[in-house]
Structure formats: C-alpha cells, structure tokens
Amino acid sequence: MRAAAGEVAAVLCLLALAAALDFGYHHAEELEAYLREVHAAHPALTHLHSIGRSVEGRDLWVLVLGRFPTQHKIGIPEFKYVANMHGDETVGREILLHLIDYLVTSYGRDPNITKLLNNTRIHIMPTMNPDGFEATKVPHCYYSRGRYNKNGEDLNRNFPDAFENNNVTIQPETRAVMNWIKNETFVLSANLHGGALVASYTFDNGNSVTGSSKGYSRSPDDDVFIHLAKTYSFNHASMYKGTGCDSRQTFPDGITNGYSWYQLEGGMQDYNYVWGQCFEITLELSCCKYPPADQLEKFWTDNKVALVEYIKQVHLGVKGQVTDRNGNPIPNAIVEAQGRSHVCPYRTNAHGEYFLLLLPGKYVINATVPGFKSMLKTVEIPDNTANFNALKQDFSFSEASIRTRPASCPKVPLIPRPWLTDSGSLNKRQPPRRVMQNLKWPNMLYLGGC
Prior knowledge:
Order of helices and strands: HHEEEHHEHHEEHEHHEHEEEEEEEH
Radius of gyration: 22 Å
Number of domains: 2
Protein name: Carboxypeptidase M
Active site: 284
CATH architecture of the largest domain: 3-Layer(aba) Sandwich
CATH class of the largest domain: Alpha Beta
Helix content: 25-40%
Distance between the termini: 57 Å
Number of strands: 15
Number of helices: 11
C-alpha cells in the first residue's frame, strides 16, 4: 500500500513539474530537464531523443508527440518545428516549449488537439544552436555573436544549395538536421527566427528559370507556399497586418517570397523542399531578436493559434501507397502532380508512401516506376485539414515484385548561376541585394533575422 502511494506521489510530482513551465528563458540544463519531465509525465504520447550534438557537445533535443511517437506509421504524416537556429533569436525557442505544454495538457480534453495528435506525428526541436544561445551573454535586439555556432558559422547559410555551389563546411548541427530529414518522411515544417515579423517562403535562392531575374523566385508549388504562409500570418495576432518592424519593411498580408525579400544561399528552407520533399517556411516572430523575458507570455499568446493551425496544413492534398501486384510497397517510385515536377523528383519512402501538399482542386497524379509505364489518376482534392486526413489515392502496378533505385537527384547546383548571362559574363541586371548579402552581418540589419 505504501509503495502504491509512493508511486502515485511520484507521478503527481512529475505532472506538477511538467505543468510548471514559466515564461522565462530556459538554458540548456533547464530545457533538457523540462523535456525529460514532459516525457516522464506523458510516456505514451511523447518520445524524447537527441538527433546529434553541437560543436560544444550539447544535445540537439527533439520531442516527438503523437499517438505513435516512437516510429512512423503508414498514413500518418510527419511534421516538424525547429527554433533557435540563430542562437540570439530566442522567441521561437521558448514558445515551442509552451506549445509542447499546451499539446500534452490538451490531449484528451480538447477534441481538436486530440484529433491532431492522433493523426499527426509532430517533432519539436526547441533549439538547433544551443551553443549560440549559451554564448549570448548580453541580450540584444539586433545583433550578437550568438547568432553563429561555436565555429562562427551561420547555420542558415550552411546547407547545400540547389542553385549555387556554396562550398561550405557542413557543421555538426547542420549535418544532424540533414540526417534527420533523410531518416524521416517529413511533409511540412517551419523554422522559427526573429528580427522581423513575417512568414517567408521558398525559394530563398533561384535563377532565371525560377524567375529570380524579376525579383521573385517561384517554386512549382508557389500557390501552396502562399497558402501556408497566409495560414500562419492570418492566425497570428498581428502578422497579417504586414506593417513589419519599421518603415522600410512592409509585407502585404504579412508574407513574402524569400528571394523577394533578399537572396539567401545555403538556407534550410530551400534544402527541405528540394532534397527533403518537405515544405518549409521561415517564421520571423519578433522585431527584437532577444526580447526581455517579461514579453514572452505575449509572444506565446500572439502565436498560439497560428502554431496549431499551421500544423493542420500537413493534411492538405493527397497521400497514398504505391504497391506491386502482391501488395508489397514499392519504394523510390516517383509520384508527382502533373505540371509540378520538382528539382529532385518526389518519391515514395520505404513503405511505398507518398504525400503531396496540394490545394483543393482537380489534379492528375503521375506515379512512375522506372522501367515501367507510368500510371495516371485524376483526383478531386477537397479541403480535408479539418478532418486531419488528406485524400487517399493508392497506385498498384500489375508487374511482379519490383525493386527500384532512388530517382536521380543532383548533388551540385542545378543550373548556371543566376548572375551570369548565357555567355558567362556578369549579368548587370542582378539586383544589388546580391552584393549586400556578401557584407558582414552588421551591414545587413535591415534584412531581418533569416
């Protein structure tokens, strides 16, 4: 009897600790302790793991939430939030902790949150740059060395670039995220920054094919990205107003194409979309990068609804499996909507699954198994986000069991550099922001936090 009472007391203690999240800044030890407490209090709903370590050896913690938190389940899409990529941009780090608190305490009580977690696997990384956060000894609204990792590298310029050979040395934090993306079937994502108030979407870089010569770098899924950015902006307390942070920054509807704002090479957003088959947008959440702690509660209130509504968008579009005549999954089959061919063809995972984010409407979905005839199916896609379940459309190939190789995907820049003409001479029409990007950070303050 005493043992049972002791166990109950321990559980109640854990629940109390998990519920005691304050509106303050949580350094490495406190952040880890909180994540462990949440997992201990909700072991069936959460899975805590480290995807790697920073330069200084700090764990890159990820808390996974959902009905099946420990592993992917067929038909359930994977979603992720990443914050604190720049160590001195701190609001996202803290509001993701409060999002975790809100999700676990609402599960089983709030029908919408319960359905969301039952039908979505949500990965939350509060900090991608723990070393930079710890190095920011004097909080500043505009700039500190804590922006960079311990090696002095900007992690949002450190990914392979689809349009330019950026020749960067991949940092431990970047490599960990790249492996994470490779090992999961992420469908939708957002990375949280500070220094502006806007939702920015792909492409951040580009060339004449994507329209960058006209100041806008358009992806094949531009309509979906605009919808995703507006979903966040219009559910935010004030982002949709588009007023920005000063008279030089105005963003209609609170959104912007990344390249239209300023060119960025080696960014995580474009890497997710090109190589990870994951739609990611960048959320700039505060004009002040490292605001006083007494403002954090308002930031949470301003972003709470938007954070949840954005996750729901992972259920846009169509999903399904590609199988052979025996019902065995066919991995690496290419599945794309006609007219939306991606730089790297979108292909099925090890379970033969595909997920395509598409707005409601009629589409022709093309499934291709290399060496065999393509299969086309016309689908009418409704808005199923409220039902937390995208339209299901499977493909079955009648041939015998098939094993395919991955579709080819370039490892080097795809097309000639956008600032060069066909003859290789300098394109004099290249916007001056290209020059601005090469300047040191203090000269780039007007560019915000990306």
